[in-house]
Amino acid sequence: MVGTADTPDRGPVVRRPAREFFGDPWDAPFEWTLACLSDPCVAAAVMSLRFTGGDEGANGSREWEFTALLDSNVQFPRLRSLVVTPTAPEHHNASLIQRAGPIRKEAGEIARFAGRTTYLTELVVPNAPDATFFDVPLPHLNILQVGPGSDTQRFIEHLAASRNLPALGLLDFSESTELQCTWADERESDAVTPFAAYERLFASDAFAPVHSFRLRNSALSPAQLQALQAMRPGLQFMAIQAGMGGYVSHFARNVFPWRHLVPGDSGQR
Q1: Is residue 147 exposed (0-12), middle (13-18) or buried (19+ Cβ within 10 Å)?
Q2: Predicted TM-score (pTM) of this structure
Q3: Which residues are within 8 A (CB) of 98 and not within 5 positions of it... i.e. 6 or more apart?
Q4: How many Cβ atoms are within 10 Å of 47's Cβ, its own excluded?
Q5: Which end of the chain is more exposed for a tag (fewer CB within 10 A), N or C?
Q6: 53-100: per-residue pLDDT in tens?
Q7: Is the dihedral of CA 100, 106, 108, 113 positive or negative?
Q8: Would you say residue 206 has pLDDT above 50?
Q9: What is the 3 state secondary structure string of the chain?
């Protein structure tokens, strides 16, 4: 679905196109949308892009491929907001941005998309970008949300060492879904972000402009969370637990970690 929004500017009202695609990323309408956005005249006018759809996918994943668009020379000089809807706890299919060809590999596509913008201020993606994202100058990016994926691509470590996000104010980061999908004794040792990486982030210059941090589904203990807060007392630091849901009928079979879904009464002092 394509629409436009009228927004008052300084003085006269100007038309600021907002484009929303609702559908499946493997169907022809998505290909048509990318072809339309590849037109320099269209891309030059767009200020907001949103990609979303129903909970449909294949083999448990919903794969957004923007490779055809990003292989063109198109630029988005007025784009302020780019949203690719993250996976919700009730979804059967995990959303992700991937490069065409490799299976379930982001392979720098988020960096390539962001690199086509000039004034991007909001970026919402369903999975973490790789290290090349932190080589893209994004001087206006103020809101960054990274949804839950199986591979964090060491996002927190790379952010701590970055210099490309001087205006970042709100960071919303979801820990790896491996916490909900894989038993601890079967999980890769580096699948989940370690506490030391968060410590480096909180102590970094890159994190200094951030005033609000939402950390979703982490494995950090209360003591570790409080230690981080003590490093930045003025930070609005919120811990959110809303991981992937699971069917009750599967509990007895121990198909996946599930005890976090039934904590009982957690309101005790």
Answers
A1: buried
A2: 0.88
A3: 63, 64, 65, 104, 105, 106, 107, 109
A4: 19
A5: C
A6: 887 766 688 899 999 999 999 999 999 999 999 988 888 788 899 999
A7: positive
A8: yes
A9: CEEEEEEECCCCEEEEEEEEEECCCCCHHHHHHHHHHCCHHHHHHCCEEEEECCCCCECCEEEECCHHHHCCCCCECCCCEEEECCCCCCCCCEEEECCCCCCCCCCCHHHHHHCCECCCCEEEECCCCCHHHHHCCCCCCCEEEECCCCCCCCHHHHHHCCCCCCCCCEEEEECCCHHHHCCHHHCCCCCCCCHHHHHHHHHCCCCCCCCEEEEECCCCCHHHHHHHHHHCCCCEEEEECCCCCCCHHHHHHCCCCCHHHCCCCCCCC
Name residue 99's beta-bridge partners. Answer: none
Residues in the chain: 269
The residue with greater pLDDT, 169 or 1, is 169
Residue ranges covered by each domain of the chain: 7-242
Q: Give the phi and the psi of residue 62 in degrees, each rounded to 5.
A: -125, 100
CATH 1.10.890: does it fit domain 7-242? Answer: no
Q: Which two tokens stand for residue 235?
A: 């930070």
Residue position matching structure tokens 């079967």: 186
For residue 203, count other CB atoms closer than 10 A to its CB: 14
Half-sphere exposure of residue 69: CA atoms within 13 angstroms, side-chain side:
26
* pLDDT band at residue 185 using 50, 70 and 90 as cut-offs: confident
Residue 5: predicted pLDDT: 41
Contact call for residues 212 and 173 (beta carbons, < 8 A): no
- Residue 135: CB atoms within 10 A of its CB come to 13
